[in-house]
Every structure is written in structure tokens, then in C-alpha cells.
Amino acid sequence: MSRTALVAVAAAISAAVACKVPDPPPIAAEWTDEFDRADIGRNYRPTSDAYAIVDGVLNVRGAYNHPLWLRKRLPDDVAIEFDTWAKTPDGDLKVEIFGDGESHAHDKGAYTSTGYVLCMGGWNNTKSFIARGSEHGKDMVTRTAPKVIPGTVYHWKIVRRGGRIDWYVTGGDAPGDAAPFLSFDDPAPYRGDGHGYFGFNNWQSDAYFDNLKIAPL
């Protein structure tokens, strides 16, 4: 390779490194986001243009498994809370926890999460689940009711301690605070490099998220 070519390659690498914005500090105390602003902001890494702030609420429609990743790393033991609702009958309220903060589907093709997928009213509002990795695999827990009711606001609380995930849902016909909506025990829990981030996700539904709160346990 000529000296001119080597200089050009070095310049390109330096420019790429310079353009990479370092992640904000990890979450070490309670952190909240009420989306009360005009744009998504630098705390998030979008992998699709399907996400937007609409009247102080995060809206997504037709992301097709291209998450909006929070760039602040999660603590290993954590409580995550937010409000969510759908305006379409296909439900599909979905987030990922302990993913790599970057991965997404290719076009509308198959996608295997790098973390856990929690979805209420998935697969055209036919089932809810916690899946480890692929939501098309067998490493998951599921339920078929309740369905997501369009326009109904649900409050989610997701708690992870060690290898256990407990998911609570209130609102609509959900069971309330007395018992988890779903629980998942993982003998080899995702943690460490490649498994530290939270993301909002979506397939096709018109979904909304608000009042995010994340706290270490």
C-alpha cells in the first residue's frame, strides 16, 4: 500500500474514532426520563427513525425490531418502571433488558435479542412473554391473557435480582400488584460485556412509553 493510501486510511480511522460519542455514565442512582422535550436526545441510540417524541411521550410505530437503546448502562440488579399503551389492536408493547445496546434486526428479517425480551400482547395480541434471546425460541415463559386494550395505560415494573426477573403490570385487565405478571429464572443470567443496556422495541403497533424510572437495587 502506498504512503498516500496509508495516510488516507489512518485519517479515516481517526475521524471515525473522533465521531464516536462516549456513553454517558452508568446508572448508579435513581434515574428518570419523562420525555418532556422536543427530541429523543443524546442519552439514546436509535437504530431506526420510527421513534419520536410526541406531546411529551415517546412514540414508536413500525420499528420492526430496531430498538431505541438507552446509552446509560444498567446496574446488574435493577428496578425499571414506566407507563405504556397502544392505540392499535395488535398490542405488541415491548422492551429489551440487558442487551448489548447496539443490535437490531436487518431490514424486517429475523432478530435474536442479545438480552431478554419482555412483550405484552405480542404476535398480534395473542400472547405475552419473557424470552431469553430469541422470542421465537423455547427459552421463555408465556401467558395468553390479558390482551392489550387499545388506549389503556399500563404501568410496568421489571425487577431483576441475580438470575430472576419479576415483571409486574397494572392497568386494564392486568392482575395488579399482588403477583408478578410473569417471572423468569435464568441459571446463567446475562451480565457483563454485551449485556448491560435497556431498549424500547416494537414491531408494527402504534405504541407509547412515558415516565421511565430506573433504580439500582
Question: In words, what does this structure look like?
Answer:
Helix content is 10%, strand content 39%. Strands 1, 3, 4, 6, 11, 12, 13 and 15 form an eight-stranded antiparallel beta sheet that branches. It has a seven-stranded antiparallel beta sheet with strand order 2-5-14-7-8-9-10. The longest helix has 17 residues. The protein contains two helices and 15 strands. The radius of gyration is 18 Å and the shape is globular. The N and C termini lie far apart (54 Å). With 217 residues, the chain is mostly beta strands.
Question: Main traits of this protein?
Answer:
disordered N terminus, seven-stranded antiparallel β-sheet, eight-stranded antiparallel β-sheet, 2 helices, 217 residues
List the SSEs and their pairings:
Blueprint: H1 3-19, E1 31-33, E2 44-46, E3 51-54, E4 57-61, E5 68-70, E6 78-86, E7 93-99, E8 116-121, H2 122-125, E9 127-132, E10 140-143, E11 154-161, E12 164-170, E13 182-185, E14 197-201, E15 206-216
- Please report the total strand number as a whole number: 15
Largest sheet: 8 strands, antiparallel
Helix content: under 10%
Report the mean per-residue pLDDT as an integer. Answer: 90
**SSE order in H/E notation?**
HEEEEEEEEHEEEEEEE
Structural class: mainly beta
Radius of gyration from CA coordinates: 18 Å
Instruction: Calculate the terminal CA-CA distance, rounded to whole Å.
Output: 54 Å
Low-confidence stretches: 3-18
User: Number of helical segments?
Assistant: 2
Shape: globular
Oligomer: single chain
